[in-house]
Design goal:
Blueprint (H helix, E strand, L loop, with lengths): L10 E5 L3 H17 L4 E6 L1 H4 L4 E5 L8 H5 L2 H18 L3 E5 L2 H13 L4 E4 L11 H8 L2 E4 L4 H6 L5 E3 L4 H4 L6 H6 L9 E5 L4 H21 L3 E5 L6 H9 L7 E2 L3 H7 L2 E5 L2 H8 L4 E5 L3 H10 L7 H6 L6 E3 L5 H13 L1 H17 L5 H13 L1
Parallel strand pairs: 1-2, 1-4, 2-3, 4-5, 5-6, 6-7, 8-9, 8-11, 9-10, 11-12, 12-13
Helix pairs in contact: 1-18, 4-5, 5-6, 10-11, 10-16
């Protein structure tokens, strides 16, 4: 799509709902502007999108939630954002709406856009193959084009008559380490010769509260048994002060890494990751990991009723088998984290088998170029 030489300036609303969506949104914004620098882009953004030629109407940090119960606790911000975006749709009438993940919010916004005759491109589709399959009908009614990031999703949606294109996984282009282990760890005052564990407790405040105290207790137990060091990787959507408050109460030294996320993850010997995008990031770096997750008990009970997949970690779902350990809800105990970690540190055949399986998962995610393919879809939809 060449830059417009006359007529009205094309506008695209882009809406993300979490830190991971902000990363994908930033790559997409770059690709869109690379095709047409005259585009006007606006919507919901995080730190990375706000650094680009993008007009933020609302901050993604005010939208983040977890389960159904936790989302309800943030209803005020969610409702304010929804009303703001609906008004922007009516008043600005963008040529296209691009929605990235965050289905509870974005599918409702898609319905509003369709009522106004605005085409909708959905990037990172709702995981209806895993739970709440009834949403397929809603997607068919209000989404014009799906850009899916897992190879099995295209045939699934197409079987329901929905236009879906596999664009590859966007993290293939994003997750890259630039510094070697020694440089990455030295920046934080850590010893490159010591075994290192990276903590990725999540991108939401509730996730920190549910996950970090147990991970820190596991760190205390493990550090009494052997020499090693820890580092906590901060997500863009959590406040450093909140992270520091939780870390200061622990009995171990855990510096915070805000920059060079992938350098730190790549330097780690083992990653403790909250289930979510972090597990795929770790897989792409071929890092052995222990996956953890906790929810409010009501949210967990509802999820058990609705979820239709055998595994929770996307790495295991893609592999079709249990490649990495999943410690969910009551199984997530400090002692269990310690036991699984000792296996990955001490038993080389287990460690090497996991790395080999992670390499197979990486291969299944495609060859890269997802953002460029989505930008091409967007260009064809507003041409």
């Amino acid at each position: 799509m060449k830059a417009a030489t006359g007529g009205a300036r094309k506008q695209i609303m882009v809406v993300v709902g979490e830190a991971s969506g902000d990363v994908l949104g930033a790559e997409l914004v770059k690709a869109l502007l690379g095709r047409n620098p005259n585009l006007k882009l606006f919507g919901v953004a995080g730190e990375q999108m706000e650094r680009l030629e993008f007009e933020p109407l609302f901050s993604v940090s005010r939208l983040t939630g977890m389960g159904l119960v936790e989302l309800a606790g943030n209803a005020g911000n969610i409702w304010r954002a929804f009303r703001l975006l609906k008004r922007a749709l009516r008043e600005r009438k963008p040529d296209l709406v691009v929605l990235i993940d965050f289905p509870e919010f974005n599918l409702r916004l898609a319905r509003s856009a369709k009522r106004l005759g605005i085409p909708v491109l959905y990037y990172v589709s709702p995981q209806v193959w895993a739970w709440r399959r009834g949403r397929v009908r809603q997607i068919a009614q209000c989404v014009d084009q799906l850009a899916v990031i897992f190879p099995f999703e295209g045939p699934f949606y197409q079987s329901f008559g929905i236009k879906a294109v596999f664009v590859g996984h966007p993290l293939i282009d994003i997750v890259k380490a630039e510094a070697d282990r020694e440089t990455a760890l030295a920046r934080l005052g850590l010893d490159p010769s010591e075994p290192t564990i990276a903590l990725l407790p999540g991108s939401r405040r509730k996730e920190l509260a549910y996950h970090l105290p147990r991970l820190l207790r596991a760190a205390e137990i493990l550090s009494r048994q052997r020499r090693l060091q820890f580092v906590c990787v901060k997500a863009a959507t959590v406040e450093r002060a909140e992270l520091e408050r939780l870390l200061d109460g622990s009995g171990v030294n855990v510096p915070i890494a805000e920059e060079s996320r992938y350098d730190i993850m790549n330097a780690a010997d083992v990653v403790w990751a909250a289930s979510g995008t972090a597990t795929l990031e770790s897989a792409l770096l071929l890092k052995p990991m222990v996956v953890v997750y906790r929810l409010a008990w009501l949210s967990y009970w509802l999820a058990c009723l609705l979820v239709r997949v055998e595994h929770i970690a996307m790495v295991n779902i893609i592999a079709g088998e249990k490649v990495v350990p999943e410690l969910i809800q009551s199984d997530f105990q400090p002692e269990t984290v310690v036991r699984e970690t000792r296996v990955l540190l001490d038993e080389q055949p287990v460690r090497q088998r996991m790395i080999a399986k992670l390499a197979e998962v990486k291969e299944k995610l495609g060859a890269g170029g997802a953002a460029a393919r989505v930008a091409e879809l967007a260009a064809s939809m507003i041409a």
